[in-house]
Specification:
By secondary structure, the chain is α/β, with parallel strands linked by helices. The chain has 15 helices and seven strands.
Length: about 325
């Protein structure tokens, strides 16, 4: 879910924090990739592709071409996978599983193949086999990755905050709450039709335009509604901003607004737990102790994997590799 309506309030209150730029401007930079989100993105973007064994493959196809694009521009990606999520996210995870199962159940009564295909997309959940195939692709392309307990976007954001990477590639606005200084998204300006244009949200400019410090921004986002704490009915982002600027303590907020808004009985507990989650990696990551999986690229095995296992067109695979052949020398 992310933070409710955060993108909209940034566009409205802090438009100067959003820069639309050509991807090539990131040449020479290091980018942490929110792995789970980008995999889902590739799975849902096109019609589902399957190999002769019935395995879904379009996430591998999409990731190969996307990473070829990044590598050809001398951008170094490092994938960060989701590990075991915080217990506070259980309700959110359960809700997503229920939606996926509901979609799967409805597939049996579809009238058309198009309806069935759309529901199949909605029923998708990342499996271990999918993750393993993505890791295989990364290993063969020589792209590093991290996989440990915790939210991938949280770890990626802290890596960016401490300067280990320059940007985080994700569509999950939670990254800003974790303190990500520079967040890369698909272009937010729909009038710009070029595929090589990205949007970069700068955390410091956004925060300055909001008139909030780090602590206030986190609390504002929690009050808006997040994966760990539900939105309070009738408190939208404009109201949440006013409340946080007036009271940045949850005790004072509940005390002064309990007669106006229906706070859940355990809201204070959920609010405080959410704050702890959003700050749990702050200054806690030691790069020297972080397990980063690295490998040497293997072009021969990469071609074999993509052509024989994923069943991609060999000529297109060869053309993709030609774009990055200088980097692979």
């Amino acid at each position: 879910m992310g933070i409710k309506s955060l993108t909209q309030i940034i566009k409205r209150e802090a438009p100067d924090s959003i820069k639309h730029d050509n991807l090539y401007k990131l040449s020479g930079k290091k980018v942490a990739v929110d792995a789970s989100l980008i995999i889902y993105q590739q799975l849902l973007r096109h019609q589902l592709l399957k190999n002769k064994n019935g395995e879904i493959t379009n996430h591998i196809t999409g990731l190969f071409y996307k990473m070829v694009n990044y590598l050809s521009l001398n951008i170094e990606p490092i994938f960060v996978f989701d590990g075991k999520p915080p217990i506070q996210k259980k309700d959110c995870v359960d809700e997503r599983k229920k939606k996926a199962q509901d979609a799967k159940d409805k597939m049996e009564s579809c009238d058309t193949q198009e309806q069935k295909d759309n529901l199949e997309k909605s029923s998708l959940r990342l499996t271990k086999d999918m993750i393993d195939n993505v890791k295989k692709l990364l290993n063969l392309m020589g792209i590093s990755y991290i996989h440990q307990d915790g939210e991938g976007e949280a770890i990626a954001s802290e890596l960016c905050r401490i300067g280990y990477v320059d940007y985080v590639l994700t569509e999950d606005m939670d990254s800003l709450v974790y303190g990500c200084p520079n967040l890369i998204r698909n272009c937010l300006d729909k009038s710009l039709k070029r595929k090589d244009i990205i949007s970069i949200i700068n955390y410091d400019i956004m925060k300055e335009k909001f008139g909030l410090n780090d602590e206030q921004f986190i609390k504002f986002c929690i009050l808006c509604g997040c994966d760990f704490c539900p939105n309070v009915p009738k408190i939208g982002n404009t109201t949440a901003m006013k409340i946080i600027k007036q009271y940045d303590n949850i005790d004072d907020i509940i005390l002064n607004y309990k007669d106006k808004y229906a706070f859940p009985e355990n809201y204070k507990e959920l609010f405080n737990e959410s704050y702890e989650i959003f700050t749990m990696y702050r200054d806690k990551i030691n790069i020297d102790e972080l397990k980063i999986s690295k490998s040497n690229k293997d072009i021969g095995k990469l071609i074999h994997f993509l052509v024989n296992d994923i069943e991609m067109n060999e000529l297109r695979v060869q053309n993709g590799i030609k774009k990055i052949q200088n980097i692979y020398k």
